[in-house]
Amino acid sequence: ACWSTLFWSMLILIGVQWVCGMLLFSAVLPWLQDESNPVGKRVAVYNYYGTFTKTMITMFEITHVNYSRASRVLQDNISENFAWFFAVYRMVVSFAILQVIRA
What we know:
single chain; Ion transport domain-containing protein; membrane
């Protein structure tokens, strides 16, 4: 019984990470492709969010480890409005979903 609960909990968690990662990747991609933005800033953002795979690894890091470094890359280089995305994501995923899984 506990394996099925673990499976469905992880499926929900991965699904939320996937959807949020797709939204974030879709928001960042036009900025990365805009050649008028400085190359150094684009490289810094690309290292975390340049491909969907990199975005998913970053989302895993944000969920389970530390979100400040990955969020500051977007806040410092693109817009401070990304802070709201990360604040809501951390509240919903880390404090709600993960605490339910742990219980």
